[in-house]
Amino acid sequence: MGHKILQALPYMLGGIAYTVGITVIALVVGLVIGMILALLRVYGGKYAQKFAAIYVVVLRGLPSLVVLFIIYFMLARFIDLPPFLAGCVALGVCSSAYQAEIFRGAIQGVPFGQMLAARALGMTKLQAITVVIMPQALRNAIPGWSNEAAVVVKDSSLVYAVGLAELLRRAQQVAARLYAPLAVFAVTALIYFLLTFGVNRLLGWVEKRTRIPGMTEVR
Amino acid sequence: MFRLRIASALLLVVLVVTAVSCKSEPANLWEKIEQEGKIVVGTSADYPPFEFVDEDGNYAGFDIVLMNEIAKRLGVEVEWQDIGFDGLIGSLQTKKIDAVIAAMSATAERDEQVDFTQPYYIGMDAILVAEGADFEITSKEDMAGKKIAVQAGTIQEGWVDENMGDADISRYERAEQAVMDLKSGRVDLVAMDFFAASNYLKEGGVVLALETEFASEHMAIAIPEGSSALQAELDKIIKELQAEGFIDQLALEYLSEE
C-alpha cells in the first residue's frame, strides 16, 4: 500500500501548483483590497469609513465556500469565470476583509503623535501616511498577516468544490482509488503543514530583515 | 460633470450590448457541441469502479469508457471536468458543463432540475455490515433501529429517507467515509450501490449482508433541462450500444467481481 501511495505522489504533488497559485493570487488580491479598506477606515471620510466597516462585517460573516459559490454559480450569467479564477477572486475577497482588520490594527498601532509631528514638519497628510505611518504599520502587520497567509493556504482546498483538482481533491481521488483514506490524508496533512510552515518561516525572515534597530525591543 | 455623464452613458450602452449579446448564444445545446467539436462532461472521479483517476492521472472507469465511446460516435471530443457529486447538478443548471455521467440515478427530484437520457444501466444496492456483526439483515424490516450510513445525494439516501424515516441516518460526502465509519463501529450498516460496494468487500473489514433492488438505480446521463436535441442524439447511441452488447461487455469488464 505504501508503495502505491508513493506511486500516486507525483500526481498529488501536481495539485500543489494550483494550491500555491490560488493562495498567492488570493493573498495579493486580499492585500490590495484590504490595504485600501484599512486606509479608508482610518483616514477616509464619514461614508468611506462606513463603507469599509460594512464590507468587513459582511464578508467576515460569510463562509468562504458560500462566497465561492456566489461568484462561480450565481455570477455565471454575467461573467463566466473558470474555476481557478473564481477561486482566486472568492478567496481574495474573503481574505481582504480579514486583512483590512490586520492593517487597521497595524496603522492604529502607530502612535497618533507621529501624524501630528509629520504635519507640523510641513508634510501633507498623504506624505505623512506614505513615508511615516505606513512603513511602520506594515512592519507591525507582519505577524498577523502571517496568520492570515496560513489560513488562506488551507482555504485554497475549497476550490475543489467547483471542479479544480488541487491538492486536496487529488488526495480524495487517490484515496478513493486505493481505498486507503487514512494513509493518503496523513500524507496530505503533512504536505499542507510543510506549505504553511514554509510560508510562516519566510514571513518570519521578512519580519527580522525589516526590523528597525532600536524600534522594537528584542529580548 | 458633462464628461462623466457621457462616460456613464457609454458604460451603460456597453453593458446593455454585452447583456444582449450574451442572450443570443446558440439556442440549441447540441448545435453548440457539434460546432465546437467537444462536449464538456462533469463527473465525480472518486467513485470506483464507475469513475476514478488511475495511476497515470487519467480518468478511468465504467462511465468514463462509456461516455468516451458515446462521444466518439457523436463525432466530438470529451472535455472531462471533475466536480464533487453535490456540485454536478448546479454546474449543469448554470451551463458550466453540457452533461453529467456519474453513476447518477434518474430520480423524480433530479428530473425536476435537469433532464435525463434513457437509462444506460440498472444497478443493484448492497447493504454492508462490519465483519463479525452480531445481527443479520435479510429484509427491510431488519434495518429498523439500526444506525444507517449513506453517501449524501445518492439514491440509497433517498430510499433510506423515505422508508426508514425514523432511523438514525448518517450522511457522508463520500462513500469511503461511510465505510470507514462502519469499520470503526460508529454505524451499523451502509447502504450503497452494489458494484461500488464490491471493491470495499475485496478490501475486507466489511461483509455483504444483503444484495437487493430496494432503490433500483436507473443510471442515466444528465443534461440541462430542455436540451431535447442532445437528448435524442444520446438516446439513439445508448440504444445502439445496448443492442450491440457494448454496455454488457463493459459491465462485465468493470463491474463484475474478480
Compose a concise summary of this entry.
Chain A has one domain: MetI-like fold (Orthogonal Bundle), CATH 1.10.3720.
Structural features, described:
The complex is a heterodimer of chains A (219) and B (258). Chain A is mainly α and 219 residues long. Chain A contains 8 helices and no strands. In chain A, helix 7 (167-178) packs antiparallel against helix 8 (181-209). The longest helix of chain A has 42 residues, at 2-43. The radius of gyration of chain A is 21 Å and the shape is flat. Chain A starts with a helix and ends in a 10-residue tail after the last helix. Chain B has 10 helices and 14 strands. The mean pLDDT of chain B is 88. Chain B has 258 residues and is of the alpha/beta class. In chain B, strand 9, helix 6 and strand 10 (168-172) form a beta-alpha-beta unit. Chains A and B meet through helix 1, helix 3 and helix 7 of A and strand 2, helix 7 and helix 8 of B.
Task: Report the sheet-strand fraction of chain A.
Answer: under 5%
Distance from N terminus to C terminus of chain A (CA atoms, Å) equals 49 Å
CATH topology of the largest domain in chain B, by name, is D-Maltodextrin-Binding Protein, domain 2
CATH topology of chain A: MetI-like fold
What is the CATH H-level superfamily of the largest domain in chain B?
A: Periplasmic binding protein-like II
* Helix-strand makeup class of chain A: mainly alpha
Shape of chain B: elongated
Mean pLDDT of chain B: 88
Overall number of domains of chain B: 2
Could you give the order of the helices and strands of chain B? HHEEEHEHEHEEEEHEHEHEEEHH
Biggest β-sheet of chain B: count, sense, barrel? 5 strands, mixed
CA-based gyration radius of chain B: 22 Å
Oligomer: heterodimer
Please write the string of helix (H) and strand (E) elements of chain A: HHHHHHHH
Strand order of the largest sheet of chain B: 10-9-11-8-12
Defining traits:
heterodimer; A: 219 residues; mainly alpha; MetI-like fold; B: 258 residues; alpha/beta; D-Maltodextrin-Binding Protein, domain 2; 10 helices; 21% strand; elongated
